[in-house]
Design brief:
This protein is mainly α and 548 residues long. The chain is built from 25 helices and 5 strands. Helix 8 runs antiparallel to helix 9, helix 8 packs parallel to helix 10 and helix 20 packs across helix 21. It is elongated, with a radius of gyration of 44 Å. The N and C termini lie far apart (110 Å).
Length: 548
């Protein structure tokens, strides 16, 4: 027993500690149980053959075990076949060649990838050889064993195809281990005393039952694993199809984006960031607490909010504040700032085009209608130039989004105001699948009529709102509270003039100079412009030319 235990220790140590392959792991688990099995069944021919083979393996390190073991089994089959042909012409090699080929193929792959140690490779071959030799004495026994090997060959052929299926490892380990254990169980049955007559027939029945039970389990495992593999294959095929579909949709979406953008560069964030940078600390927060704004923000129906105020009162900064607030609240916001002073921001089409680009970013897959618009229009022009088509694109993108906020600042600064207002009314009046909340800022003008028709909720600032914001804005520059209060009271609640005075005061060092400047600094925009023109007029001709 000491010799056997030593041999078994060597055999168990031959298994790799971290076998990655299913067959390799099954072999390792079988080897781990080998000592215990030998103690319980020390005379088992299969276990004894493993011990003998284990000692030979020590002397044959470095040799490809799959080739050696396959050759040994093939030789054994040929020898057995020769013996049987003397009787009934059994042709064992013909029947067992498929089993031998697939077993060798699987184990050769395992050995090549170091998934199982050389001795572990030999186990399956040794088991097959032992049970064949043991069954040779009784014709009926041999037929049961050979038939079992033929069926196992079919199971192994399936597993060879499943070997690359992800997430199937643990189930394959169980099945491979069952195949190896099958040799042990057969050898245990066949090693019982061989007698004739009724006892022999009883042993055959026992062997058939043991074999059928084991093969049934293997077959069920194979069917389950095959089903998992097929499901995994279908899933992977679906994933591949979805990945291709997603890639195609991304490419189409990018084509549509280029079509909307046209040849011009787009920097819609620039105006927003500029206005937000001009905001001083907590100014404009009053609108975020206004009940009309809160109702608009939380509305579950389409809603329009109109903020109107005089020129220079900080409407654009307020719009940027609202956008910043909504964005930080994880809302989907699209926006545009119209401006007289920028050629790219004064035309009606500019605003709709930029809104379309932002709304497209919120859509994962372009809708069929959007694709139809794109394909139809690109037959005539490579870029989106038709204004009504642009409005249709915006509406389609709005419809495909839910819970949207759209902020359009300075609609009175649109150079095509008369053309824009009917388009806006038509767009807002159309039905949508989700909730859309519009916020417009402007001076009071012809826009008021359109806002009335749209049933917009109107917000205009109270004098105290603007006054407090201007006061907070200028406080760091004017330490004299009385001077600050007097100037703010006289500046007509105009943020633009407040910015001009802030820029002027920032160049002065002494409190005395600041007080003197405040006394003479114009309180109205017209006065500031007149003073600026007077200063330009006092300059040289070249400087006047540069200023104009």
């Amino acid at each position: 027993m000491d010799h056997a235990a030593s041999a078994l220790s060597h055999v168990q140590g031959s298994g790799t500690a971290d076998s990655a392959g299913a067959f390799g792991q099954a072999v390792d688990e079988f080897l781990a149980d080998l000592k215990k099995k030998h103690k319980e069944d020390s005379k088992n021919p299969f276990l004894q053959a493993l011990i003998d083979h284990g000692e030979k393996t020590r002397a044959a390190d470095g040799i490809s075990q799959s080739d050696v073991s396959a050759q040994e089994l093939q030789s054994s089959i040929l020898e057995l076949d020769a013996q049987k042909r003397m009787g009934r012409g059994y042709r064992l090699i013909h029947r067992l060649n498929p089993f031998l080929d697939v077993l060798k193929s699987i184990l050769k792959k395992s050995e090549a990838f170091a998934q199982v140690a050389p001795f572990g490779v030999a186990i399956a071959f040794v088991g097959a050889r032992v049970v064949l030799e043991m069954a040779l004495g009784v014709e009926e026994y041999l037929e049961v064993v050979v038939t079992a090997m033929e069926r196992i060959a079919g199971i192994l052929e399936v597993y060879q195809r499943l070997s690359s299926t992800p997430d199937l490892g643990s189930r394959l380990v169980r099945s491979y281990k069952s195949i190896i254990t099958f040799w042990y169980k057969l050898s245990k049955v066949l090693s019982s005393p061989k007698t004739k007559g009724i006892l022999a027939r009883t042993m055959l029945t026992s062997l058939q039952k043991e074999t059928e039970d084991a093969l049934k389990d293997l077959q069920e495992d194979m069917q389950i694993n095959l089903g998992i593999s097929q499901a995994a294959g279908l899933l992977m095929a679906d994933i591949d199809r979805q990945a291709k579909h997603d890639a195609d949709q991304r490419a189409l979406k990018n084509d549509i984006r280029q079509w909307i953008m046209g040849q011009s560069s787009v920097d819609f964030r620039g105006d927003y960031e500029t206005q937000l940078d001009m905001r001083y600390k907590d100014t404009c927060t009053w609108i975020l607490q206004d009940q009309r704004f809160l109702d608009w923000q939380e509305s579950r129906n389409n809603a329009v909010l109109w903020y109107n105020a005089q020129p220079g009162s900080g409407k654009s900064v307020l719009a940027a504040t609202v956008i910043d607030h909504l964005t930080k609240s994880q809302k989907k916001v699209a926006y545009f700032f119209y401006s007289f002073s920028k050629n790219s921001s004064r035309h009606v089409a500019d605003g709709f085009r930029i809104l379309a680009l932002q709304l497209l970013a919120f859509v994962r897959t372009p809708s069929d209608k959007l694709v139809d618009l794109y394909e139809t229009e690109t037959q005539f022009a490579p870029s989106l130039n038709n204004l009504r088509t642009t409005v249709s694109v915006v509406h389609e993108l709005i419809t495909r989004n839910d819970d949207l906020y759209i902020v359009v600042d300075g609609i009175d600064e649109c150079g095509d105001e008369k053309e824009m207002l009917p388009l806006l009314e038509g767009l807002i009046g159309q039905s949508t699948l989700g909730t859309v909340r519009w916020l417009f800022t402007s001076r009071v003008s012809e826009i008021e009529k359109a806002m009335r028709r749209l049933e917009a909720v109107e917000i205009h600032p109270s004098p105290n709102n603007i006054r407090e914001d201007i006061k907070n804005y200028l406080a760091p520059k004017i330490s004299c509270e009385e001077c600050l209060a007097d100037w703010v009271d006289e500046c007509d609640n105009n943020f633009l003039i407040a910015r001009f005075v802030s820029e002027t005061l920032s160049k002065l060092m002494s409190e005395e100079d600041i007080r003197a400047e405040l006394k003479t600094f114009p309180k109205k925009l017209n006065g500031y412009y007149m003073r600026t023109l007077t200063k330009i007029n006092a300059r040289g001709q070249m400087e006047q030319l540069v200023a104009t």
